[in-house]
Design brief:
- By secondary structure, the chain is an alpha+beta fold.
- Helix content is about 25%, strand content about 30%.
- The chain contains seven helices and eleven strands.
């Protein structure tokens, strides 16, 4: 007789396992689990099947399962505790006083819509890109945070944040889940006694990146409106570089500068 965990595994495989044999099983399982958690297949704090149930119900061996779970722990998606097992991290936390994602339903609204955020992953990179010149990257490593922002449970916005890792070491070392709901601009200002100046917003339109498809529901169309936000230190040095991928929606986005 199948255990509850084995039944969950088999339902998960039916819904999320891909037939793409070009990728290793570890990567296929990691991507599938990430998608399932993002979709709410397992709710926050839900207990996942144990290692033996994964092995029994999936095409993966024990070593593959263990490697995948370790990877998801490192990404902050799940946590493993003695006596409790493996559970989904409650990633969504309310953000107070958002600066860039200030949505309203109508022009008559007097308050911005609530927003909760969770960090999907963190990378320390040395590759260059559109952010490099603004951040005076040179040979410095960059901390790259990828987040999802739930706007009043109506719209999901995907955000990529770039900053110099050497300038803000806590962004590279803090437990990933502790950054959920964090207003990074206020965190930097308070922790490093920095005044954020010269915030600049620019809009562009481009095909929705393929990586968003790992997490997004169908509301993200083939193209996204991308809000780019940059900020500088008082001396003119680049502070951060951000892209917000916004799907089609009927909300209003306030781009005023009264918060600077």
């Amino acid at each position: 007789m199948q255990s509850k965990g084995e039944k969950e595994c088999r339902e998960f495989i039916n819904r999320y396992w891909t037939g793409d044999d070009s990728q290793p099983k570890y990567e296929r399982l990691r991507r599938a689990l990430s998608s399932a958690i993002a979709d709410g297949f397992w709710s926050p704090e839900a207990r996942l099947p144990n290692e033996q149930e994964w092995v029994a119900a999936t095409p993966c061996g024990l070593a593959t399962v263990q490697r995948t779970l370790r990877s998801l722990v490192a990404e902050g998606l799940i946590q493993r505790r003695r006596g409790i097992g493996t559970t989904v991290v409650n990633r969504d936390r309310p953000m107070t006083e958002p600066w860039h994602m200030r949505f309203m339903r109508t022009e008559e609204d007097t308050e911005y819509l609530s927003i909760s955020t969770s960090v999907l992953n963190r990378r320390i990179i040395k590759t260059t890109g559109a952010w490099s010149k603004h951040l005076d990257q040179g040979d410095h490593p960059i901390v790259k945070l990828t987040r999802i922002m739930h706007i009043a449970n109506e719209v999901d916005v995907y955000n990529v944040f770039y900053a110099r890792a050497d300038l803000f070491p806590e962004l590279t070392s803090k437990p990933l889940h502790s950054l959920n709901g964090t207003n990074i601009k206020r965190f930097i200002a308070a922790r490093y006694n920095i005044s954020v100046r010269n915030v600049r917003h620019r809009l562009r339109f481009e095909p929705t990146p393929k990586w968003i498809a790992e997490y997004a529901d169908p509301q993200h169309a083939e193209a996204s409106t991308v809000l780019n936000a940059t900020a500088q230190l008082p001396g003119g040095e680049g502070l951060y570089y951000q892209d917000f991928f916004i799907p089609p929606n009927k909300l209003l986005l306030e781009l005023g500068t009264d918060f600077i």
